[in-house]
Amino acid sequence: MKVNDRHTDPAKIEEVSERVIGYLSGLTISAMIYLGDQLGLYRALRDAGPVTSQQLAATSGLHERWVREWLHAQAGAGLVHYRGNGCYELTPEQAVILADEDHPAFAAGGFSLVVPLVQLWDRMHTAFKTGRGVPYNALGREHAEGEARFSGPWMRANLVPTILPALEGVVPKLERGAKVADIGCGSGRALLEMAKAYPQSEFHGYDSAELAISFAEENLDKTGLSNVRFHRAVAQTLAPDTSYDFILTWDCLHDMTNPLAAMRAIRGAIKPDGTWLIVDINGKPTPEENYAQPLAGFLYSVSVLDCLSCSTSEEGGAALGTLGFPEPVARRMAAEAGFQRFTVHDFGNPLNAFYEVRL
Known about the structure:
Blueprint: H1 10-38, H2 41-45, H3 53-60, H4 64-77, E1 81-84, E2 87-89, H5 92-98, H6 109-114, H7 121-130, H8 141-163, H9 170-176, E3 179-183, H10 189-197, E4 202-207, H11 210-223, E5 228-232, E6 244-250, H12 259-269, E7 270-281, H13 287-291, H14 296-311, H15 327-336, E8 341-345, E9 352-358
Parallel strand pairs: 3-4, 3-6, 4-5, 6-7
Antiparallel strand pairs: 1-2, 7-9, 8-9
Helix pairs in contact: 1-4, 3-4, 8-10
């Protein structure tokens, strides 16, 4: 027996071992979900009824033996229902989560957000040694698309019908014709949803990442909208002309290298009676409080892979990380930027906090 073994509890070793093996299992199953999403297997299963591996392979244009093994993995993980006699199907509940991108519960897109990141090991090793991350652009197009696919379904289902009407005086302004900015607009989907709903208003999307703006322009081209413009620019380039009626920052302040400078630029750009909606990760004030939350391990891990990297991509970056912008920090920084009114909203999203900020 090794000396260290005398001080270990076999029951606790088993507990930790089960947890670690569970995460290893989750990693391999995550890879299968990613493949099922990328290869269109979930979409082929949706509304198909019970199918064999031969039928699914024929429908999806893939090799039957590999499809069969994938189905075994899916059935074993409880993600696809096995009907017996070699037949498999997606239940309605499995379908909305894995195959229906229009449903707010759709989650398969999140795997194309994370899986590309875990392949960037050289970047991770360098960051841990130097403290310097990389900008959003360097994380790749697939990650950018995955980010939009992960957050987009819930946003599309809630932004226009639920969130905007809850903000004081915002919808009447948008109906009459308002000037709107989305700072850190990413793929532009939030801005496009608003632009479709309020054709009398003028919408501007700002993002420093060339990849994000390219993606947003592609999405704009598909809509035919004429009341939207995208700008490859940081928030600090906003003209301090108090011309914006409504400004949105959705899940981006914690990623910025200098969020306070962005917030001060928003202060200079917004009208005296304007509204700023901050949507950010619903973190707690202390790490100890975060540890008690079910998604803490996931969110801190995403921070290492993504958010911390973005926020340290410049010398002296803020390094907030995914959970580094909880309500007390948001309140303090908003006040430093010159805002006085700060209202918290709850729209039933466990990942995000919603702050209505005004002068």
